[in-house]
Each structure stands twice: as structure tokens, then as C-alpha cells.
Design a protein that fits this description.
Blueprint lengths: L19 H22 L15 E7 L3 E2 L10 E2 L4 H6 L9 E4 L2 E4 L8 H21 L7 E6 L2 E6 L1 H11 L4 E7 L6 H12 L4 H18 L6 H8 L3 H10 L3 H9 L6 H9 L9 H22 L18 H4 L26 H9 L20 H16 L4
Parallel strand pairs: 2-7, 3-4, 6-8
Antiparallel strand pairs: 1-8, 4-5, 6-7
Helix pairs in contact: 3-4, 5-6, 6-9
Organism: Vibrio pomeroyi
Protein name: ParB/Sulfiredoxin domain-containing protein
């Protein structure tokens, strides 16, 4: 019988192509050694960069099984090892939950098909499998997975979750891979995650909202005094417009919950439209204003689900709604009707849509190419809200008159 005591795990699973990683790691070590020597001799100027702790990493080969995803990572891709599935399902809280089984050559979506995240997870599975093939064919990963020691021999991912899943799919949990290991737990792991993901824009809206919220909270908790909007924007590395949008979206937890439940339905444009109609604070105290704002958001977001013929998620059901008849308990909120007399409203409004075909046509087609009575697309003044509202009303009326 073969003695496995002295048998060593092959770092690259025996694939010769992956042996290129050894050369890459050595090149990194040589480069770092040269940099350290230059610093000791007194290098002059250091480029100004955002300090994410990445420069303090060192490459090291680790057993894959000792590395785990960050449980607060914004990416919605809950991974379960095959051996842990039975225990996971034994917990009543996990009934109907989204999850994925991952191992070497195994990446199975066990999420119920009626779950809002099912299609989202399916797309991620395709991306991860394709990335695994690229890693195998290309001889490794060009940007290493960053981890830090979470305690004992356990390591936690800072950044590179999707790459990690691809490596597990390629080699399994019992092999070894080269990671970049932080000397200590980084001070700003959420900032690191947001900056890296934002540069590629590969997060869907609800994941991006969560990543933003975690990063901003982390920045402020690490600062002696709360950072200004400008300071936060600079550290996050996003535009002013994106920063203010995400600030609005992340202010209310129900917006994240509704966007997650309505993935693909609740878009950035949808949220911007709703927030543009948000009642102003006026003289109301903060608590009252927040309560009114949340009620407004619940009603407006619920209407998006209703008009699309989708079931309302729990986060958008009013406490006194025992009947479940959302169309009766959640009438359209007419902010325009509350505008003081003599003042021209600055809000957009539209009649309620009743057919799925109308909603689908409006959202997926270029309606400006349609001939609609009373609308001359070449002469529409898009800065005149009254005219735009009239145009929108006529367009929806025409869409509702369409036949299946």
C-alpha cells in the first residue's frame, strides 16, 4: 500500500502550463527585494497612492482549504462545500435560500428557480467557469488573490473572490495555490474591495450599493473625524455623480433590499426617477422626515413590482397590509398634486400602466421611433418637464392600446 505520509501536494495539480506561476512568483520576489534595497538606501520621492495595504503583501503558497471568502463581501454568490451542504440545509433559516455547491469541476446552482438571484448566480457561474479555463490556458492569474490571517491557520480573502472560486473549480479545496498575504489585517479591506470592483464595474446594482455602504462606513470608522463628501469620493475613486447617486441609494436599507429582490427590474434609472420625486424635508424633524421618506419609497418601489406583474417582496409590504392586495393599499403617490398653487411642478409623472406588453415595450424599445398621436419627437423640449410629462402620458396611452 502506498505511503502517503511523505507525499507532497502538487501546487499546480500537475499541469505544466500552470508552472509558469513559479516564475511569476520569483519575479515578484526579486522585484520586491530590489524595492526594499532601494528604500533602505533612501529612495527620494514616493508616488501618492491610495493606501489599501496591498504593498505590504507577500506571495505565499497556501492550502486552498485554509482560505475562506469574506462573509461581508458585497458579491451575492454564497458558496457551500459539498460536505457542508447537509448541515446547511438542516438549518430551518436556510430553507429556500440561494447557494452554490463548489469543488473541483463542480459548480452547481442549488438556488430555487423562483428566487430573485437565480439568474444572477447562473451568469456568475458561467463567468467563473470561463475564468477558470483562462487561468488554466494562460498559466495562472495575473493579479493575485489577496488574503490576511484571520486566526491560526485560517485566512480570509480581502479581494479576488471570483478568482478564488475559479481556482477552487479548477483544482478543488485540497490543493495549494499562491496567494498574496497581508502581514496584518488591512485597515481598509472594504475600500480595497470597492476600488478594485469599481474599476471593472462588474457588480450589479444591489451589490454595488452594498459595497459602497461598507466602504464609506469603514472610511468614517477609521477616521478621527467624519470625512467630507469630497474626501470620501477621492478615496473611493469614483465620479461625483456616482458618489451622490450611491449615497442616496445606500441611505435607506429598504432600497438595497428592494433592488436585490428586483434585480434587473429596479435599475439605477428607476431609483434616480423615484428619488427625484422624494418629498423635501421642509420644517419636519429628521425622524418624521425619514419615516415619510421610507413610506414614500415603499409605495413607489412597490408600484414598480406591481406594474411589472411581480410579487411584492417583504420589504415593500406595509405593516397594515393584511390582505396582500397591494394595488388597493399602495395607490400612486401624487407628489405633483401637493405642489403649492401658482408654482410649476419640477417633477415627472406618468399614468399607471396596466399591461405587461406596454411595460416591456417602454423598457426595451426605442419609443422615439414610434408614431404616436400628439407627439413630434423632433420638437420635444426635454428640459420642459410639463411637455415631457405630456409626451410620456401620450406614449403610455399608445402603448396600452397595443395588442398582444
Amino acid at each position: 500500500m502506498e505511503n502517503n505520509k511523505d507525499k507532497k501536494t502538487v501546487v499546480r495539480g500537475g499541469n505544466a502550463g500552470l508552472g509558469k506561476m513559479a516564475l511569476a512568483r520569483q519575479a515578484l520576489l526579486d522585484k520586491q527585494k530590489k524595492t526594499d534595497e532601494q528604500n533602505k538606501e533612501g529612495a527620494t520621492e514616493t508616488p501618492k497612492v491610495i493606501d489599501t495595504g496591498s504593498k505590504d503583501c507577500r506571495p505565499d503558497d497556501l492550502p486552498i482549504a485554509t482560505v475562506s471568502p469574506d462573509p461581508e463581501n458585497a458579491r451575492d454568490f454564497p458558496v457551500i462545500k459539498p460536505a457542508a451542504e447537509k448541515m446547511f440545509l438542516a438549518n430551518p433559516k436556510n430553507e429556500g435560500s440561494a447557494y452554490v455547491i463548489l469543488d473541483s469541476g463542480l459548480l452547481e446552482n442549488k438556488t430555487p428557480k423562483d428566487h430573485p438571484l437565480f439568474d444572477h448566480i447562473e451568469r456568475q457561474i458561467d463567468d467563473i467557469i470561463n475564468l477558470a479555463k483562462q487561468i488554466e490556458d494562460g498559466g495562472g492569474i495575473y493579479q493575485a488573490i489577496e488574503v490576511y490571517r484571520a486566526g491560526g491557520t485560517d485566512y480570509r480573502i480581502v479581494f479576488g473572490h471570483r478568482r478564488f472560486y475559479s481556482v477552487v473549480y479548477l483544482l478543488g479545496w485540497d490543493d495549494v495555490w499562491s496567494f498574496k498575504v497581508h502581514r496584518a489585517k488591512p485597515e481598509s479591506p472594504k475600500l480595497r474591495q470597492f476600488v478594485e470592483n469599481s474599476s471593472r464595474s462588474d457588480l450589479v446594482l444591489h451589490e454595488r450599493i452594498r459595497a459602497f455602504k461598507l466602504a464609506v462606513d469603514e472610511l468614517n470608522s477609521n477616521a478621527e473625524t467624519p470625512l467630507s463628501y469630497k474626501e470620501c469620493q477621492t478615496k473611493l475613486g469614483i465620479s461625483k455623480t456616482s458618489f451622490y447617486e450611491l449615497s442616496k441609494f445606500s441611505e435607506f436599507e429598504l432600497v438595497y433590499d428592494a433592488t436585490r429582490a428586483g434585480i434587473g427590474l429596479i435599475t439605477k434609472q428607476t431609483l434616480n426617477s423615484i428619488f427625484s420625486q422624494m418629498p423635501k424635508q421642509g420644517t419636519a424633524d429628521d425622524e418624521t422626515y425619514r419615516a415619510n421618506s421610507e413610506e414614500f419609497l415603499i409605495k413607489q418601489l412597490a408600484l414598480v413590482f406591481i406594474e411589472a406583474g411581480k410579487e411584492l417582496p417583504t420589504c415593500l409590504k406595509l405593516e397594515d397590509d393584511d390582505t396582500g392586495q397591494a394595488e388597493e393599499t399602495l395607490p400612486p403617490v401624487s407628489v405633483e398634486a401637493k405642489a403649492p398653487r401658482g408654482r410649476r411642478t419640477s417633477l415627472y409623472s406618468a399614468p399607471k400602466m396596466k399591461t405587461t406588453l406596454a411595460v416591456k415595450t417602454l423598457l426595451t424599445s426605442d419609443v422615439t421611433k414610434m408614431e404616436i398621436d400628439g407627439v413630434n419627437w423632433d420638437e420635444v423640449d426635454w428640459e420642459d418637464r410639463v411637455q415631457v410629462n405630456e409626451c410620456l402620458t401620450a406614449t403610455i396611452k399608445a402603448l396600452e392600446a397595443m395588442k398582444e
